[in-house]
Amino acid sequence: MKQRAVIGAVAVAAVAAGVWAWVANRDSGESLQGSATAAAPAVSQGPRIVAPTPLVTVASGVMHDTWLLKPPAGAKVAVYEFDDLECPVCARAIPIVRAAVEHYKVPVVHRDYPLTEIHVWSFQAAVTARYIEDRISPQLADEFRKDVFANQSLIANKDDLARFTGRWFQAHNRSLPFVMDPSGACQNEVKADRALGDRIGVGVHGTPCIFVVTPQSATLVVDVNQIGRMIEVAMAQTRAEAQVVEDVKQRS
Known about the structure:
55% helix
């Protein structure tokens, strides 16, 4: 009897595991394929109700509360990027993202997500970039981030970062402050970005974590080389939705 019970329990466990794996693969596959290749919605005869998309399932984890990511005022499509200045994958991916948003003329919303658990100087680099953004200009902050990515291999620790930062300020005819962020305001901004990323699930996915967003949805970019196609799809969707609204107005 005991041997039969054990065999039966093993069989039930195997079936359950198989069912769980099939469901997980089906759900993640549908989410990934639907996010990257979904066609623009056709204009129907009646109004189409578009529900927000607060959850995106990916192979490496689950993204929560993506409804928090919205395009800036006046924009229908935007790109959100969560990155870490010490992350080598970010150094390769972010230039592709920036080229795409420039080509399609959509805004990009940058968020700092320093992986302080494994990267020793990423937080300080993010604070410096935020200082430049707040006190000098966002454009110069983008230049700093781009140059940090380009020189990652030369920055091994906080001392290297300090020397790089000093040379960078000098090269841009700027005075390096004796204390970068005495009030802690820039640190708090970086921490707020990290808290937003934690709520969404960026830490599960890892950096870079990039989304194409519309007022109704936020789609995770799984393959950064497909971001152009994803922006095109989002733009087509928003145009179709606007046409539906216009059609409803004309009928009423």
